[in-house]
Amino acid sequence: MPRKASPKIVRRRPAHFRVDDEVELRVLTHAHAGTLFAITDRNRAYLRRWLPWVDATRTVRDTARFIRSGREQLRRNDGFQAGIWYRGELVGAIGYHYWNWAVRKTEIGYWLAEPFQGKGIATRAVRTLVDHAFRDLGMDRVEIRAAAGNARSYAIAERLGFTREGTLRGAEYSSKRAVDQVVYGLLRGEWKT
Predict the structure, then answer these.
(1) Contact criterion met (CB below 8 Å) for 106 and 98
(2) CB-CB contact of 172 with 52 (8 Å)
(3) Distance separating alpha carbons of residues 86 and 54, to the nearest angstrom
(4) How many CA atoms lie within 13 A of 141 on its CB side?
(5) Residues near 93 by beta carbon (within 8 Å), at least 6 away in sequence
(6) Which of 37, 44, 134, 181 could form a disulfide with 63 if both were Cys (CB 3.0 to 4.6 A apart)?
(7) What's domain 16-140's superfamily in CATH?
(8) What is the four-CA torsion angle of 57, 59, 60, 65, rounded to 10 degrees?
(9) Distance (Å) of CA 130 to CA 116, 144, 161
(10) Domain ranges of the chain
(11) Could you tell me the pTM of the whole model?
């Protein structure tokens, strides 16, 4: 189904979100490309198990293209990509893969450098974007999709009240092989802030 921009729906599109005293989300800019690439490169072995884009991200230029694409996405009113800062340090990324204004739904994707996992950073970041999607963007549904076996990602979705809705077989590629994708969904009326 085609996605249509609807300016009347978007009431607030901040460039950054102050999550709490430790975590902040900022829309990525070209200035972040080198740092974000370095994080990706240091965590490559871990990330490639779960994410299909890791092997294609070989240079800072590749990361700069991703950032540019995220900024174009925001200009088109079709989502955005942000960095996750923990205590002032860039430690991962999060974003809306799209905004489907026709059916008022979106999907959130995220990743953290392995050393920063287990601190609640991703849960807090995802909670902020879920709340923004329902409260400020007028979405009726938010999805999270994770590679089969990615228990840490499942735990975030479940902790935030998402329902595991099913598995899409062979839905994406990770490390050059087809992997199943588990789909979690949350409806506006189910959201407890």
Answers:
(1) yes
(2) yes
(3) 22
(4) 14
(5) 28, 36, 81, 82, 83, 84, 110, 111
(6) 37
(7) Gcn5-related N-acetyltransferase (GNAT) (3.40.630.30)
(8) -50
(9) 21, 10, 11
(10) 16-140
(11) 0.89
